[in-house]
Amino acid sequence: MEKPPRLLLSRLWLQNRVYDVTLNSVVFAWKETEPNKKRAPGSNWNTCKAAGSHSVPVCEIIAVQETAEKSQKRKNVGKWHRVPRSPEESYQPPAFTVFYVERTRQHRWRCRSVTFHCPDWGLCQQWIQTIEEQLSLLTYRPKRLLVYINPFGGKQQGKRIYEQKVAPIFSRASISTDVIVTERANHARDHLKTEADLKKYDGVVCVGGDGMFSEIVHGLIWRTQSDSGVDQNCPEETLVPCDIRIGIIPAGSTDCICYATVGANDPVTSALHIIVGDSQPIDVCSVHHNNTFLRYSVSLLGYGFYGDLLTDSEKKRWMGPTRYDFSGVKTFLSHHYYEGTVSFLPATDNVSSPRDKFKCRSGCHVCQHSEHPPPEDKQMCNEKEEEDSVLESGHKDVWRVIRGKFVAINAVSMSCACPRSPKGLSPAAHLSDGTTDLILVHKCSRLDFLRHLLRHTNKNDQFDHSFVEVHRVRQFRFMPKHQEADSELDLRERGGGRGLFGQICRDHPACSCTPTHSTWSCDGEMLPHTAIQVGVHCQLIKLFARGIEDQPVFEDSTGVCSA
């Protein structure tokens, strides 16, 4: 591949050393010419042996500005100085500073700067103007953002995080913002639905946790479908993708979505991804009950264990983020299971599997080759023999039906990785392939379920259990089995007497009975119904992200800065 033509080449000073500085439409680079010999301004420039070099993609330059030496002089006020012997000795050559992205450990980004001194003002201005012209060609970068801050989420640090860590970087990148501090639940969602003039903005940014992000998603999708005349209550309706991108500044308790799409829960890293204009498509699941829309899900739909955990934790919000640990232990010890029927449409045309070792990363070929899912089969599945997997042929697709007793039913549209569970619930789940991973944990012993949970934190295959199965699907339905009375066999299976863990029963502390149905947890919110129908909408929204980078090594090629 041919290299792009060089725009500028000059010899400039950097910390009293001479560098060859070059710029083309892709790369800004500087190379030291004399690594061991200092050069003073005004000395002769000879061709020397090249030393170590540095390069920055133009698409990762944040800003360029003229460097004012007056600020340095103000720092030295009141100190003793040697009187310069000549006017040339006191002369400060003109300089410009380039701010750029630098990658550090654990997928974190930082804003670094480098200052070059020029022999004259004309050359300095030429460099500033040329770099600014190249940045202006990056039309995918946002110029104006609508920012929502949740001051109550997580540790209630959202406003401070934005003002101290994010706002200065946006200002340096010449991004204008309109900031709204939310005052109640669903404030951002309602504002996006009706009041926000989205045509004025290049993106919407939420400062908060996964709950705040969910508000933004619901508001934007609702607004897009409403403007397009799409009936969201119809499960078979094809939704219109949202044009405006969403940025996440993590300030919540878990920040699962930010971690799974960037690789770190770091406000500065997320702000830099927004500035450089990254774009990562994301799948969204729509959840319906009897042709009535309930909610959208981007990360986790959980029934059984995770539904019970959320239900219990909501009663203990006064405990803060630690309520999840407490409720998690309590729900595990209760060890309830629930009977029902799961029917699903497998993604037979997908090129990946939830059991393979290929993880979704930046530039993922699975997501790039994904297409919108095939037409939905409107024919309902016929339920057959208990605990059996049944096949039913539709017009084009084949549905499967599984009936049984489940400790947990999870549908994850991304890995759901977080600092506590670096692998997540489904390590090989993809962000934008038009599928969700349906994980069925059948009735098992408490010890076996603990083994399954522990594998979320280590490198072992968490699906390698006889009581766990996982399917990559495009749609699924769940119907709980409600019984007025348990059979004698079920009572013996569930422990009719008061056992060691009988006192932890959620609904009846004095007995050991098991409730007939659980609650669905949808991205941290409880659903009012248990019988649901779920469909995956491929690449419905876009985030200011690029996916987790495996090897962030920059190569001098024309494709590195593509939007």
Topology:
Blueprint: E1 6-14, E2 17-24, E3 27-32, E4 53-57, E5 61-67, H1 70-75, H2 87-90, E6 95-103, E7 109-117, H3 121-136, E8 144-149, H4 158-172, E9 176-181, H5 187-195, E10 203-208, H6 210-228, E11 245-250, H7 256-262, H8 267-275, E12 280-289, E13 292-297, E14 300-304, H9 305-314, H10 323-334, E15 338-346, H11 365-368, E16 389-393, E17 398-412, E18 436-442, H12 446-454, E19 468-480, H13 488-494, E20 521-522, E21 525-526, E22 532-543
Parallel strand pairs: 8-9, 8-10, 10-11
Antiparallel strand pairs: 1-2, 2-3, 3-4, 5-6, 6-7, 12-13, 12-22, 14-17, 14-20, 15-17, 15-19, 16-17, 17-18, 18-19, 19-22, 20-21
> Low-confidence parts, pLDDT < 50 over ≥5 residues?
42-51, 70-77, 372-395, 483-512, 553-560
Number of strands: 22
Gap between N and C termini, in Å? 19 Å
Shape: elongated
Helical region count?
13
Provide the gyration radius in Å. 28 Å
Mean pLDDT across every amino acid position: 84
Biggest pleated sheet: 11 strands, antiparallel
> What percent of the residues sit in helical stretches (DSSP H or I)?
10-25%
Fraction in beta strands: 25-35%
